[in-house]
Amino acid sequence: MRNAVCTFCGNVCDDIEFDGVTGKNLCPIGEAKFAAKRRIEAPMVRGRRVSYEEAIEKAAEVLVNAKRPLLYGWASTVNEAIRLGVILAEKLGGVYDQCSSVCHAPSTLAMIEEGIPGGTLGQAKNRADVVVFWGCNPVEAHPRHPSRYSVMTKGFLTKGRQHRHVIVVDVRKTATAYLATEFYQIKPGYDYAVFTALRSIINGHEKAVPEEVGGISKKKLKELADILINGKYGVIFYGLGLTHSRGQDRNVENIVKLVQTLNRHTRYILQPMRGHFNVVGAGEVAAWEAGYEYAIDFSRGYSRFLPSEFTAVEVLVRRDCDAALIVASDPAAHFPKEAVKRLAEIPVIQIDPHPNVTTLLADIVIPSALVGIEAEGTVYRMDGIPLRVKKLKDTGYWSDYEILKLMLDKVIQLKGE
Amino acid sequence: MLHIKNGIVIDPKNGIIGEKMDIFIKDGKIVEEVEVNGCKTIDANGKLVVAGGIDLHAHIAGGKINTGRAMRPEEMRHVRQKTGKFRAAVGRTLLTSPAIGYEYAKMGYTTAIEPATPSIYVIHTHEELDSIPIIDKATLPLFGNWHPVLRYSADKDIEKLKSFVAWVLERTKGYGVKLVNPGGVEAWMYGGNVKSIDDTVPGFGVTPREIITSLIAAVEELKLPHSVHIHCNNLGMPGNYETTMETIKLAKGFENERRQVLHVTHVQFNAYTGSSWRDIGSGAEHIAKLINSMDNVTIDMGQPIFGYATTMTADCPWQFELHKIAKAKWCNRDIELETGAGIVPYVYRPKNPVNSVQWAVGLELGLLVDSEKIAVSTDYPNGGPFTSYPYIVTLLMSRKFREEEMKKAHPYMEKATSLSSIDKEKSLEEVITMTRVTPAKVLGMENKGHLGVGADGDVVIYDIDPLNYSSNDWQTILKAFENPLYTIKSGEIVVKDGELVGETWGRTFWVDARADTTTEIIEADLEEYFNYYTVKCCNYGVKEAWLRNPVRITAG
Ligand code: SF4
Ligand SMILES: [Zn+2]
After folding, report:
1. Residue B344 and residue B328: Cα distance in Å, rounded?
2. Do residues B199 and B291 share a domain?
3. How far apart (Å, rounded) are the C-alpha atoms in residues A187 and A182?
4. A39-103+277-415 and A105-272: same fold?
5. Does the CB of A155 have a partner CB in chain B at under 8 Å?
6. Residue A107 touches partner B, C-beta closer than 8 Å
7. Please, are residues B514 and B160 in contact by the beta-carbon 8 Å criterion?
C-alpha cells in the first residue's frame, strides 16, 4: 500500500510504501516498529490462556470492584480507543492519565499560564527562514523531521536548506548540531536565564545582561538575538531538554514569552517535539470529553484536574489507586521505583501488542492489534494535524477499540446503569 | 409516533401565528394527522409549540475550542452534571462535547453549525462533532486565505474556483464556504493585516474584494444550499462599520431567489464607529438600514454577554491585537498555506465603556434589523456562552428587562449608542423567526426551522401562552425559554421540564457539489500544491465511513 502512515514518532510520516512486510521511506526507528517483534500470544488471566471475552469480562470485574482504578497509557493508540478510555474512567470513578504526564506536561502547564503561539509543521517547511532546535535532537528522536519539515525540505516560499538559518541550542553537541548553521552550547539548567537574556536584548535592555549567561558570552547572545529578530518567519522547536531540566514548565513559559516578544517585531511560532505518535490525541480527546488533557480524577462523578495529585506516578506513589488498566505503555519500565512498587501490589490489566516489563506484573494481559499495521483509526501528529492510520494486513488480534468497547459495555452492565 | 395536542403553535414559515393545533411526528418527521391509537401523547394545552432552535454559528468543535479547554482549566471547574445515566458535563462558558449537546437540548435547540474549520484539521472537527450528543450539525471549512483560492481569485478563474470548492467540500464533508478576514490572515504570516477590502494581499496581487466576489460567484454557480458566510476584515476595530458596509454592498452584484447571497456573521464585532477606543460608538443603525434595504444579505448578532468568554477565530492578527489589549494569554496557530487560528480569554465587563458599547450594539442590531434577516448568536464562545440565548431573546422581547440590564452598563453606552431610545419589543413570532426560521433559511435547510409536513421532528414546548403574556413580565419569558417543558429531537423526547431525559445522536450534513464540476482542471494545481503540504493529497480530508451519521446533500 502506498502512502501508509508510520505509527512510531510524533512526525507521523504519511508517505510509507508498505510491501506486506516492511515499508519504504521508513527511518531506522520506524523500521524497527514495522519489523516483526515478539507478540503477546493470547489473552491471559493470571498466567492462564483464556478467550478475549473471558479476559475482558474478568478485567471489567476487577475495574468495577476497585474503588479508584488508574487508567494509564494511551499515547500509542488511536483516538477512537482513547475516547472509550476516558468514558471508562468516568463510569468507573477512576483516574485518567496519559504519557504526557511524564514528558510534555510542563508544556501544558506553560500553556495554561501563557498560551502557546504555535503553528503547523508546514509553516516550517514553507515559510521559515530561521529554524531553531532548543533542547531537542530530531536527528535521533524524530529522524525524518529535518528532511520532511524543517531543514532540508523544499517549501513554497523557502526553497531549501540554503535559505534557512538553522540554530541548535543544547547542553552537548548532538547529532542535530551537525546540521546547524550555528550551534550554541549552553550550561545544563540555564535555559531560563538565557531566554531572559534574549528577551532583555530584544526589548532594548541590553545593559541588564551580564557578560556571560549559561556559558554563552554576551557577544554571542547578541548575535543570536540578531539572527532571531532578522528572520522573516521563524520556528522554534523545543524538546525534553527544556521540560526535563531545572525550571521545567517555567522554562517553557519563558520561551513562550520570548516568542511573544519576537512577534512584536517579526513572526515566530513555537512547537514542542512530541514523542509518541498519538500523545497529542491522548490529551485532545480527554479535553473534549472531560475538559482536561491529563491527570484527571473522576472519583466525584465528574472530572477534576490536579497535576500534583492525579498523575499516574502521584496516584501510585500515594497509594491512591487500587487497580490499574495500562494501555499501550510500559510504566513498570519507566516510572520511579516507588510507583512501580505500588503497581506490583494492585491488580493490573494490560492491553498491548507486545510483552514488556509491565507484562511481568500484570494479572490480566490482553494482546491487541498493532495500530497502523493491523488496526486503523485517527491519530494527531505533534502539531495536532489529524491523520487516519491504516490497516495494512489482517490479524486475529482484537484492536484496542474492540477490546475497550466490550470492556465498557461489561462495566456498564456490571454497574447496572 | 408522537402526538402533541392542543398546543399553541407558532410556525412563521407556514404562516401559523398562535393557532391551537396538534402536531404529529412519525419516524423522526412531522406528518399529517396519524392514527392516534397507541401513540404517545403530550398535552400542550395553552403552551407554546415551536420548531427546534438552530444555531448557525457556534465554535462547538475542533482545534480552536479544544485548545481553549486545554489552556483554560479554570473554565472547566463548573460542574453541570455528574455521571450516571448520561455523561458527566462540565464547563462554565467552554463546555465539553457532552455538555454542549445537553445544554443545547436543555434550551430547545436541536441544530448547531461549527463555522470555521481549517480543512487540514477537519478530521478533528468531525471527531468532536461526533462526540456531541443529540443535536444535528455541520461544519464550514475556511477558504478566505487559502493559497489556491487567492490565486484563482487573482486570476478571476471562477471555473477552477468552483472545482476547488466542490473538491474541498467533498474531502472535508463540509457544508459551505466560510471566509475569515479574507487576505488578512495571509498578510499576518509576515506580521501584517489588510485594512480595507481594497488592500492588496502580499504576494498575491489580490484584494479582499476580489476574494469575496469570486467566492460568491463560485458558490452561487455551484448552487450551494448556504451562501458565502463571512467574518469581515477589520473585526474588533473602531470605525470598522464602514468596511462592513462595503462588504455587504458586494452582494449587490448577485441574485438568488431562494436565499441571501452573503451571510455576514457576528456583525456586532464589525459595527463600530469612531477612530479609537476613546470615541468608539455604534454603527448599528447604519448597518441595519442597509441590511433592511437589501434582500440578499443576512447577518447574525454576535451578542456579547457580560461575564466570561474565550475568543477564538481564524483572524490571527486580531487575536494578537487582543492579546496585547487584554494582556491575556494567547494561543496562535498558523496553518500550512490555508489559514490560522488564535485564542485569547476575555471578560466583558459592564463597567468597561467599550464592552458596554459592544453589548448595546449587539442588541441594537437585534432590534433594528428585520427578523427575517438576522439570527440570534453570541459567536460562541467569542461573545459568551450559547446558553445565554434565552437571556438575549428576553432582552429583545422586553423593554423593561432591557432597562434593568442597561442600569448595569457603563454610562458611556448612553452617549455612544442609541439603545435606550429604541422602544421596539420583538414579538414571540419575531424571536421564533430569529432563532428558527431565519437560520434555517440562511443555511438552506428546508426541513428545519418549521413544523410543516415533512419537516424534521424537532419540536419544543415552552411554558408560555403566546395568546396571553406580557412583555413586562420578563421573568416569565426568561424562565420559559430557559426551561423547555419538552425538547423533542427527531421524535424522541430528550428534555422534560428542563431536565435531560434522553440521549440521541444527531446527523452531520455535508454538501456534495461535484455534479457540475470536474477536478481535472485543478488536478495539476493540486499536485503542485500538495508538494508543499506536509500530508499527502490522498491522506487529506475525511471519508463518510468515518463519521457517525453523515447525510449527503446534493447541491443544485
Ligand atoms: S520519522 Fe517518525 S514517523 Fe517518520 S518514519 Fe521515522 S519513526 Fe516513523
Ligand atoms: Zn465565529
Report:
1. 7
2. yes
3. 16
4. no
5. yes
6. no
7. no
* B350-394 confidence digits (pLDDT tens): 999 999 999 999 999 999 999 999 999 999 999 999 999 999 999
Q: Which residues of B touch A123 (CB under 8 A)?
A: 189, 334-336
User: Residue ranges per domain, chain A?
Assistant: 39-103+277-415, 105-272
Please determine, for residue A326, whether its predicted confidence score (pLDDT) is greater than 70.
Answer: yes
Does position B46 have pLDDT exceeding 90, yes or no? yes
Q: Which helix (H) or strand (E) holds A297?
A: strand A296-297
Helices A249-262, A105-114: crossing angle, 10 deg rounding: 50
Residues in chain B: 556
Q: What's the CATH number where B75 sits?
A: 3.20.20.140
Query: Residue B428 is which amino acid?
Result: L
What whole-number distance in Å separates Cα of residue B223 and Cα of residue A131?
45
Residue type, B190: Y
Q: How many CB atoms lie within 10 A of CB B355?
A: 19
Q: Which residues contact B184 (CB under 8 A, 6 or more apart)?
A: B145, B193, B194, B208, B233, B315, B317
Rounded CA-CA distance B527/B538 in Å is 11
* pTM recorded for the entire structure: 0.97
Is the domain of B197 the same as that of B240?
Answer: yes
| Cα dihedral value B7, B13, B18, B19, nearest 10 | -60
Nearest CA in chain A to B84: A417
pLDDT in tens, A6-62: 999 999 999 999 887 788 899 999 998 888 789 999 999 999 999 999 999 999 999
Nearest to residue B494, comparing CAs of B5, B134, B47?
B134
Answer whether A143 contacts ligand 1 (Cβ < 6 A).
yes
Answer yes or no: is B518 within a domain.
no
- Whether residue A220 is predicted with pLDDT greater than 90 in this model: the reply is yes
Q: Is residue B314 located within the same domain as residue B369?
A: yes
Same-domain status, B370 and B489:
no
Model pLDDT, residue A137: 97
Instruction: Mark yes or no for CB contact A289/B147 under 8 Å.
Output: no
Q: Are B99 and B90 in contact (CB under 8 A)?
A: yes
Which of A269, A305, A378 comes nearest B127 by C-beta? Answer: A378
Tell me how far CA of residue B360 lies from CA of A234, A377, B235, B348, in angstroms: 41, 47, 17, 12
pLDDT of residue A417: 63
Same domain, B422 and B460: no
Q: Specify the pLDDT at position B531.
A: 93
Choosing among 3.40.50.1220, 3.40.50.740, 3.20.20.100, 3.30.70.2970, the CATH entry for A39-103+277-415 is 3.40.50.740
DSSP state of A410: H
Which residues in chain B touch residue A305, judged by CB atoms under 8 angstroms apart?
Answer: 73, 76
What tens digit of pLDDT does each residue of A102-129 get?
999 999 999 999 999 999 999 999 999 9
Pick the CATH number of A105-272 from 3.40.50.10320, 3.40.228.10, 3.60.150.10, 3.40.50.2300: 3.40.228.10
Number of domains in chain B: 2
B381 plus B467 within the same structural domain:
no
Which residues in A89-101 are b (16+ Cβ under 10 Å) and which e? bbbbbbbbbbbbb
Domain presence at residue B142: yes
Domain end, chosen from B500, B522, B539, is at B500
Does residue B80 belong to any structural domain of this protein?
yes
Does ipTM exceed 0.90? yes
Between the two ends of chain A, the Cα-to-Cα distance in Å is: 44
Residue B297 lies in domain: 53-443
pLDDT in tens, B523-536: 999 999 999 999 99
Residues B214 and B203 in one domain: yes
Coil, helix or strand at residue B34: coil
Q: Which grid coordinates belong to A153?
A: 525540505
- Other CB atoms closer than 10 Å to residue B324's CB: what's the count? 14
Is the same domain home to B399 and B468?
A: no
